[in-house]
Input
Amino acid sequence: MKRTFLLSFIVISACFCYAQQRVATYIVEGVLSDPSLEGTTVTIARYDNSKIVNSTKVSNGKFKITGEVQTPFLARIYAEKRFGILIVEEGTILIDMEKTHTDTGIPIIHPASGTPLNNEFANLKRSIDSLVYNQIEQYEQIEKEYTDSHKKAQLQNELIAKIRPILISNYQKVFQQHKNDVLGSYTIDALSNELSPDEMTSVFAQAGPYIMSLPNTQEIIKRLEKLKQTSKGKMFIDFEGKNENGQPLKLSNFVGKGKYTLIHFWSRSCGGCRKEMPIIAEVYKQFGNKGLEVIGVAVNEGSISTKKAIKELNVTWPQIFETGHQPFEIYGFNYIPQVMLFSPNGIILARDLNRENILSKVEEIFKP
Output
């Protein structure tokens, strides 16, 4: 009881201290020389809740946004198809959004510079981007050079295993220097996508009261708890959507009914989901008549949109429509596609399967 009261006092005190910080002026400057962008609105919106906080128009190929800030916060900045990310803090912040894609066609989200936190954030983002861009290019090279799905999966998994520790290390190094500010909050968000719930416990233990008081941090903690509740070895948790005729249809209509069941969570607007469809189709073709149930679960969109995608992608396996955000809330997802494998009695055998290991995991359970 005493410990709970003490923690509450620390969090409240941290919030009060930040509320007492002085109001400071920030200036965001940039160049957008493309003539087609003259007069275009440049918008700054908070990263955590997308609330628009400031904007201006491009004039003579340039823009300048001035405002006031009390506590530094992470934000997006955008104009048409130009995107950037910055920490809104005292001082003059510079951002270059001239280029929209890398030379190999990968979309760019530009970091800012000119102020202490933005300079550190830019260094972190450039190091991460370099790793990620390199990974994407190697992925594409593997796709071009190999036709055997097993060989591709092996090489791509090796690539992930090689890069992931470097990503984690980069984020952890920055977190160690920013345990109680907006940059530390950003690294916690990133690490929560790479580390297990148990591994994140030690990260939260080091975080300062300001970070722990943030709504985004509390949401991460809730999501990680959902991940623990629906981890490998746990029983599935049911939710309800609709069938193609608009009638109620539950996950339990398929899972726990005596068959191994592969569930693919997806939506029409998700590019990664579309890329994954041929693999799901291959699994369905190879194992659908051997006792495997393959089910699609459409999230965050209506049945009309889903039905269009089913036709476009030639999807032939059963679907649960109109599940909304339920799967995210129940299973702790924060992105799609997601693929889960369930035992005949409804136990979770695997989750977070991806293009590189879906087929091999199913082959594993159907070995003679």
Summary: Residues 13 and 164 are 37 Å apart (CA to CA).
